[in-house]
Design brief:
The structure is a single chain. Helices cover about 35% and strands about 25% of the residues. β2 and β3 form a beta hairpin. The chain is elongated, with a radius of gyration of 26 Å.
Length: about 280
Amino acid sequence: MLNPIEGEIFYIDKPLEMTSFAVVKQVRGRLRTRLDRKNIHVGHAGTLDPLASGVLIVCTGRMTKRIEELQAGVKEYTAWVRLGETTPSYDMETEVDATYPWEHITRELVEQVLKEQFTGSIEQVPPAFSACKVDGKPAYKLARKGKDVEIKAKTLVIDEIEVVECGLPAEPTLVLRVVCSKGTYIRALARDIGTALGSGAHLYGLRRTQVGDVRVEQCETLDGILGRLETEEMVSAEQAEQELLERERIANRKRAAILNAARKKRQEKKEQNKNNTDL
């Protein structure tokens, strides 16, 4: 039985061309309708770009308190990279703005650069087309207005990075597997790899395959989750609140018992000390 007020954690395979917030909005909307309640907490643990698919953890109710813990987990991605071309957003959200030679790049060179420059602790400047705040505003809102956006570099950790497929020398394409820390922008990683190879690069596909211990194979589709929220048996908001109040009463009684025992012990010790003094 689902208990969205007390809290549920859903593992969703986010579809392409949908924002993480849109997923949260659909889950919240379905719960509001089912429970006939407007105030329902729903949030996600780690944003995925609209042009990325894969693991998105969505929490409801009191489980939203675990969001920071859940999004801190190590993440794994499969990234499709095209060499020789750049875009302002570092992915296919925007059009190609420059081309570069790529014929000099070999698989051996790629693997050497990845090992020497993109393994372990690295510095990365997040994309201008991102949710990073600049003067209190999301950078992407400024970037889409054509304004210059200056974002400071951040220290990240790339635990593993390897070439899964290589189109070279026939095609300037790479498929990379990346295991990295929270806050890593794979789009920016593609940009920096292109620069390090003496060329340019951008993402043409991205899939998050793991967050913490959760793999994409364990995830449900968004339609599957929404269907469950429509039909699966669910604890009502009123029942959830009553159960919470009862747990709080029990916890309060336990705390009171502990305090009373400690108070009694202090009093007994005080009386014992007084008796010893009188002797």
